[in-house]
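Handout, section 4.2: multi-component inputs.
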Amino acid sequence: MKKAVPAAGLALAAAAALAFAATAHGQDASPVADPSITAYSHAEDMVTARILQMVEIEALQLRMEAYAAGAEDDPDLMRSLAYSVSSLMLAVPHLFPSTTNFMELPHSEDVSTVALPAIWQDFETFYALAIGVSDVALETAQAEDEATLKAGIAAIRQGCDACHASFMQAYAPPIPPL
Ligand code: HEC
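Output:
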């Protein structure tokens, strides 16, 4: 004859099984114990890194846009700047793991981000936009004549704007009190 298991005992066993499953799952992915998985070990630093990366990309892009608008500059240097933008953009999506969704996740007061949660609802689109801009910048770096080079510089900016429109919170200037 089977021994009846009291209900409370069953509940405890179920809770223990759940706890074990959670631990086992965590160990499978081993995300927290390994300090080199920076999405977990240094998530807040990633925000600083990606913002500085964006600011650097912006500086390169502005220099190219001044040239495209008619400023005297060296076309070969512009090609080299476009190549730098291409390389930097290639790394960008890797600085956006879901652990850095700090508009939704708890974080320290020092962290300030305008990266929208939409990134992690549609990460493949976000990723493709970054790679797309990287590709356009690489083509721009190989432009054979100045007209193509200038058109490429404009096309890069369209890629920046497309991603920002969907995935970056627009800056809204504070409304001054009346
Ligand atoms: C794949 C999407 C994507 C692309 C492509 C992209 N950006 Fe960004 N950019 C972002 C996101 C998201 C942020 C907000 C990051 C944050 O606050 O954590 C941002 C932030 C910025 C910032 C603001 C940094 C600050 O001061 O807070 C600048 C400037 C910028 N990007 C420039 C550019 C330029 C120039 C390009 C094109 C060469 C570009 N970005 C391409 C997604 C993108």
